[in-house]
Amino acid sequence: xxxxxxxxxxxxxxNHRRGRVRTRWSCRPAELFFPPLARLEIExxxxxxxxxxxxxxxxxxxxxxxxxxxxxxxxxxxxxxVARAQLQHLLESSERPNVxxxxxxxxxxxxPLLGDSSVLYAEAPNPHLDTVHMDSPAEPVFIDSPTQLAxxxxxxxxxxxxxxxxxxxxxxVRKIAREL
Length: 180
Known about the structure:
The protein is α/β, with parallel strands linked by helices.
């Protein structure tokens, strides 16, 4: 699950899956698990996923905090080379001053975001404008109900509490990459 925060000096710079910091090739394998899609549909989805990263990687990047479960890091969709390249990309992205990467290892026990698809919590300067964006096989889902937003905020806060520090998270990702 990831959190995009409004621009503010006090805001620190994820996703329990690798949704916001993907390579072109890591976007593709997920499509294999859904009903077959036309090549054009796959290309459009890949292009969209890569284009939306520009809010984090562009000229005026906004703070992004990603929480990724160890299980997502160990998935080898697309094979070892694709998985290794994705982990390297995560490490490079986590070095950006506006990006914070936190890993929840298996040893942390339960994971409050278990079962969710790729989720992005977009915080607005005014909390009434917050939005959750969830990827799904069929189409994106946007949530803006105050009750549901409070639930996602609580779950994201809980995940951040059990996650490793950013430094330990990078070390953990490097260890997994070496094991591939």
